[in-house]
Amino acid sequence: MSSGTEVIERFSDVRKELENVEELHGHIDDFERNSIFHSTVFLKKAKDQSAAMRVKMLNSQIREKNEITERLHELAHNLGMLRTLVFVKDEKAFSRIKDSFLTNEYSSIPVIAEELNDFRDKLDNLKKGYKAMINDRHASIDFKVKHEHHLDSHLKKLGNVRKKQKALLVSMGLMFTKLSKELIRQKRD
């Protein structure tokens, strides 16, 4: 799953992909350390100081989206338990696990989907903030081309992490549906 958009069909592959989701902290820290947008010289010359503060705040909030991966780990754990229920056929356990997929305040499918949407919105706002910083003071074409490319590369990395997280959620949601149908069918038989 290199691009993060394919549906994963095997649980073991979900577990592997979860281990391969990159840390947001490293990407953001590296960019802040090595980009002109966060140098004191650039920030001191900026006309719009609020844009720099918004970007800093958004970077901090996006770092927190690393928790989506932790939520996905918990969802995968519940999926693993659901897989064992196909063999055990415990209705009470099935009900608890089903509820965890649908209503758990930390790792249910709707909660993770909402976090992913918030992540997307924050990435959009971050892009706008950085673009405002580019257009603020340094209007030369050379500056824009050089730094927009670096910025676009950074934003693409962050977007790819989100895509992988989303693909994992979709894959586990489909597995949950398939296993639930199988358990319900077994109950009727």
Quick structural summary:
The protein is mainly α and 189 residues long. 80% of the residues lie in helices and 0% in strands.
Q: How would you explain this protein's 3D organization?
A:
The structure is a single chain. With 189 residues, the protein is mainly alpha-helical. Helices cover 80% and strands 0% of the residues. The protein contains 8 helices and no strands. The chain starts with 10 loop residues before the first helix and ends with a helix.
**Which structural class do you get from the secondary structure elements?**
mainly alpha
The total of beta strands comes to 0
Radius of gyration: 21 Å
Q: Major beta sheet, specifics?
A: none
Average pLDDT score: 89
- H/E element string? HHHHHHHH
In terms of topology, how is this protein built?
Elements: H1 11-20, H2 24-34, H3 40-45, H4 49-63, H5 67-88, H6 91-102, H7 109-136, H8 141-188
Helix pairs in contact: 1-5, 1-8, 2-8, 4-7, 5-6, 5-7, 5-8, 7-8
Which features would summarize this protein structure in a list?
about 190 residues, mainly alpha, 8 helices, elongated
